[in-house]
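Intended use. Records like the one below are meant for learning the mapping from a protein sequence to its folded structure. Do not use them to infer anything beyond what is encoded.
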Amino acid sequence: MQDPKYVKKAFSRIADRYVATNHVLSLGTDILWRKKVGRIVADWQPGKVLDVATGTGDLAIEIQKKCPDAEVTGSDFCEEMLAFAADGGVKKTVVADALNMPFDDDTFDVLTVAFGLRNMASWPNALQEMSRVVRPDGHLLVLDFSLPTGILRTPYRFYLNKVLPKIAGLMTGEKDAYEYLAGTIEEFPSGQDMCALIDTNGFRDTKALPLTCGVASIYTAVV
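Structure written out for the chain above:
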C-alpha cells in the first residue's frame, strides 16, 4: 500500500544522497533511461513540459537539454528535493501535490513522471489529474520500475528485496525506506496492466516499452 507521507519524510532525509544512490543501485542505467525519455519528448516538439514528481530534477534537466526551446516545469511535493532540483539547473520549480496540481486545464503539451506515480496515494486519481492539465492530443510519458519476466525474474527479485536495501542503507542510513520502495515495485502494475490503467484514466493509445530486460518500462499515451 502506498504511503505518500512516509515517502515525503524519507526523501526529505536523503535528498542530498538520492541521486548518487540511484546511480549506484542501477549501475548507471538510470542515466540511460532518462536520456531515452529525453529523446522521445524531443520528438514531440513540445512548447510546455511538466515533469511531475521531479525529485532532484534529473529528468527535467535532461528534457531541458533535449528541448532547449521548451518551457520545462518541475513539480514535487517535497520542498527539500525541489531545492536540489533548482540548484542543479531546473529553471522553473513548483511545490505541488500530484493529486491536486495548481495548474489550469489544458496547460501542458507533455507531462512526464519518472519513478513517482508508483508512490502516489491513488494511481487512478493521479492519472486523471495529469490528464486534466495536459492539452487535447498532448502526451503523457511514465518511466518506472517493472519486474522482468522469464529467467531474470527470480534473481532480480532477490536483488530488489535482499541486496538493494542493504546497499542503499549503507549509503543513506535509510534501509527501511528502500525496503518500502522495493515493496512498491512488487505491487506496481506493469506491461499491459499498466497500459490498461492509463487508458481507463484520461488517456488513450498507451504503449509500453520495456527497458533493460524489463527492469524498467516507459509508457506513452495521448490525451
